[in-house]
Amino acid sequence: MVEIIKKGKLLYSITYLDVRIVDQEGNIVFQKSQLQTPLLLQPLANDNSIMKETLMKADKDQYYHYINRMGLEYIAAAIWDHHQYKGLIVLGPFLSSIPSNELITDLISKHKFPVSERKQLHDYFQSLSIVGSTKSTYLGDLLINMCHHPYIDGKLVHTEKSRSTEKVGKILYEEDKLIIEGRYKAEKKLMRTIEKGDMEEIDRLSKEVKGMLDFSDRIPESPFRSAKNMLFVLNTLCRISAEKGGLRPITVHHVSEKFAILIERAPNLPYLKILASDMINEYCALVQKHSTKDFSMIVRKAVDYIQINLEKTLTLKDIASAIHVHPSHLSRKFKQDTGLTIIDYVNQKRVEEAKLHLQAGNTTITDIALMVGYNDLNYFTRVFKKFTGQTPSQYMKNVAK
Fold first, then answer.
1. Contact (CB, 8 A) for 29 and 40
2. Measured between alpha carbons, how far is 380 from 374 in angstroms, rounded to an integer?
3. Is it true that the peptide bond before 93 is cis, omega within 30 degrees of 0?
4. Which one of 152, 239, 264, 375 is at 20 to 30 Å from 399 when CA atoms are compared?
5. C-alpha pair distances (Å), 59 with each of 78, 80, 85
6. Mind listing the pLDDT tens digit for each residue in 273-292?
7. Taking the CB of residue 6, how many other CB atoms lie within 10 A of it?
8. pTM over 0.70
9. Which residue did the predictor score with more confidence, 166 or 127?
């Protein structure tokens, strides 16, 4: 297996996809991953036996493009020693198209996932590589060829050293002082704007931000690597600003992890430029929508608890007990900070989730009510109409039109 593990490492470094090597007994002997599978998906993601069964029946020059119950895609090929099956190599997960909100809604409905996990699922699917049909064919061919041929360690032909490395130090220290000061000024302004969640100001800052990211001369031999490095820095700055702006640490973590993977897997420079803009806008929008910066610590804890347990029974007494405060004190502080009673806030969040499922149109209203925490359909209908001006069935019909 030593030789095949070397092939696994090589595949990981050139495809930017997760690689898994499984022996004939089903044991994982090599695994390299950039992204951890969310806990709620792990019980549904053990597909090694399915791929093994299919590949053992296939010809030795065939690979398997497998799509599991969650829409995650993999390319797998069997490892053969003459006519003896030795295991399999698996590339993935990846997607063949950009994941939509409807996909996440369908997964939640189909597998009865807690609605409070929507953000984590969304970020996980957004972080996966998109692999078109042509590229997946090339990946299959690559796997077959690697599995059928022995591994050979390449040897570098030494040539005269390039002098460009001597110029790097010069470039770093000869940058114009005004340009450096301008970049740091733009950086501070950007961080303050994200911290405030000011989407209008972010639009106005777009030109300054572009200048801040233009560091292609930092590594003259590799502008692509240089741009990636700058985006990693930008991701960290945005993360710090969003946390200062009152975004929940768990949300900041998921967003930061998602963009770190998207940066590393970026195929080219134009993609990185689009990604930089998307990243800034997403952090800023999340602060604008979900910031709890101006809330007291008690109210922040209550909001966090509600978000994590949206599908469960949530009364003032339950929430107060969970965060160890007196119900009347929590009720008073919550109304003072948010302008809403706790029950109104819970209902508002549940209606927002219900609207996403109604837009998908493939789940009954009764099931949607249960998923978002309502055991009484009539009560759900009254609450929904209070916040939207329509009953759930009217809302669904209008969406269909």
1. no
2. 6
3. yes
4. 375
5. 10, 11, 12
6. 888 888 999 999 888 887 77
7. 14
8. no
9. 127
